[in-house]
Write a structure and sequence with these properties.
With 494 residues, the protein is α/β, with parallel strands linked by helices. It folds into two domains: 285 residues, 3-Layer(aba) Sandwich (Aminopeptidase), CATH 3.40.630; 145 residues, Glucose Oxidase, domain 1 (3-Layer(bba) Sandwich), CATH 3.50.30.30. Helices cover 37% and strands 23% of the residues. The protein is globular. The relative contact order is 0.15.
């Protein structure tokens, strides 16, 4: 058991140092309605006073993972709440929600042939059964897409399906599905066991939810290394009859968690809200430094930087750190449901999602007419501050399975930074190598620099474009090829 007294002392010292630094750096508050945003001054201040990486390193070393429902997850919530307060945010609150929290227990996977058996290293995927003992013949289901399952046919029934997490040898233009969507399709074909093959070399095991809605699925699912998946497939090609035997025991309990929310009220149009969100939680195999400490602690530093500025944004800026994203967007779904019930959602003009973002080169936009032109114009203005670091790239790709999804499905325009963190980062997300050594401090500084300038300029726009209409949202989702995955997940609104 950790020395809680020493840990609390460390947290207290961190907060004290933060508060002192902020008091030194922070300007005297003024009424900002008559002042213009100084983009170059903001950029200099962010680079000189950045705290995000230091806070993330402290969390990685003293808290560890931030799994929703765990003691570490609760401590991460407390830390975020305190850092918002130490940064002098005028409004800080918690949004509580209840969740069914899954946690991993034991797992043993063996592969049998007529001559014997051998152990294969595996990790359970989340929201899999609490107790399971399954023995089934191994059948290669390729990428686990509908066409792959069609080719397997009746052999899927009662089988242990070997499924790629990524796409390998797929037809040109094929679109991958989330592991939870592949699991739903495989269970629909009668699979008894799911063995997901990681696509990253180095015997790296990857976790993540196998459930679309956060409920426990009835079929056990586990992840194995790419090297083991390749070896199994080579033996199947040779015609060997292989049987997988998997035993697992996990836990699940009802817990309470909190989204941590802070805001700076707008100086001119306080009733209109620009919401910046990212998930604070992470899986338990490592400390989640890149997924999504990179985004969530950048948001904390952005809040600090904006609070320290003399100029208040003209619209209200709300910062939200979500819990439960990894287990099925639990915190963001709960918040959006409440905002829809109360009418607050109509005031949220757009949602900016920072999930594994760093060194933004531009922005992606999922919004109706007007949003693309507005963000493109703002991007050109940001590039004037530092064209070497910010290219002003634009994208209209729409994607799912992060905290922007519940907002998008209610018609709220979504913006996200365009980043390329490199294969060394993407190969470690959800795995045991996702730790602080992967984080480039400057990536977090650039998040704050460029997202902050976007936010200030959105806030000062004379008028912001509207939400999606129901018809325009439906058309956009269909054009993006998202109808099928949303139907599989039970999230298709029509």
């Amino acid at each position: 058991m950790p020395n809680l007294f020493t840990t609390r002392q460390s947290i207290g010292l961190l907060w004290l140092r933060t508060a002192v630094a902020l008091l030194i750096c922070q300007h005297d508050p003024v009424d900002a309605t008559a002042q213009a945003f100084d983009a170059f001054g903001f950029d200099r201040a962010v680079q000189q006073e950045a705290m995000g990486y230091q806070w993330l390193r402290w969390s990685s070393e003293h808290i560890g993972h931030r799994l929703t429902g765990s003691a570490q997850g609760a401590r991460a919530e407390d830390l975020a709440d305190s850092l918002f307060r130490a940064s002098a945010l005028p409004v800080v609150s918690r949004f509580p929600f209840a969740a069914q929290a899954w946690s991993r227990g034991t797992i043993q996977l063996t592969v049998n042939d007529p001559t014997g058996a051998w152990h294969v290293q595996a990790v359970a995927l989340a929201n899999t059964p609490l107790e399971a003992l399954v023995e089934a013949p191994i059948v290669d289901a390729g990428n686990g897409l509908p066409a792959d399952l069609d080719s397997v046919g009746d052999r899927a029934k009662g089988a242990a399906l070997l499924v790629n997490l990524g796409l390998i040898g797929a037809p040109e233009g094929a679109r991958n599905l989330h592991r939870s969507e592949k699991a739903a399709l495989a269970m629909g074909r009668g699979a008894a066991l799911l063995l997901f093959v990681n696509h990253v070399e180095g015997h790296i095991l990857l976790t993540g939810t196998a459930s679309i809605d956060g409920a426990l699925i009835p079929v056990p699912a586990a992840s194995i290394a790419t090297e083991d998946g390749k070896a199994l497939r080579e033996r199947l090609v040779r015609g060997e009859q292989l049987t997988a035997r998997l035993a697992m025991g996990n836990q699940s309990r009802r817990v309470s968690a909190n989204n941590i929310i802070a805001e700076i009220p707008g100086a001119r149009v306080p009733e209109e809200v620009i919401l910046i969100g990212g998930h604070l939680d992470c899986w338990d195999l490592a400390t989640g430094a890149t997924d999504n400490g990179l985004g969530s602690f950048s948001i904390l530093d952005l809040a600090r930087a904006m609070s320290a500025m003399e100029v208040r944004p003209e619209r209200t800026v709300r910062f939200v750190l979500f819990m439960g994203e990894e287990q099925g967007l639990l915190g963001s779904r709960a918040l959006v449901d409440e905002y829809a019930r109360s009418g607050e959602l109509a005031h949220v003009k757009c949602m900016i999602n920072l999930d594994m973002s760093g060194h933004p080169q531009g922005f992606g936009i999922a919004g109706p007419q007007g949003w693309g032109d507005l963000v493109a114009r703002i991007s050109k203005e940001i590039a004037l501050v530092d064209s070497a670091a910010f290219a002003g790239t634009m994208s209209e790709e729409v994607w799912l399975h992060s905290d922007h999804q519940p907002f998008l499905l209610r018609g709220v325009p979504v913006i996200y930074p365009l980043s390329d963190l490199g294969k060394h980062v993407y190969g470690c997300y959800h795995s045991s190598c996702d730790d602080i050594h992967l984080v480039d401090p400057q990536a977090m500084v650039d998040n704050v620099r460029f997202v902050g300038q976007l936010v200030y300029r959105l806030a000062s726009s004379q008028a912001l474009p509207p939400h999606f209409t129901e018809e325009s949202l439906r058309a956009r989702l269909i054009d993006a090829g998202l109808e099928q995955p949303l139907r599989i997940g039970g999230d298709w609104p029509w």
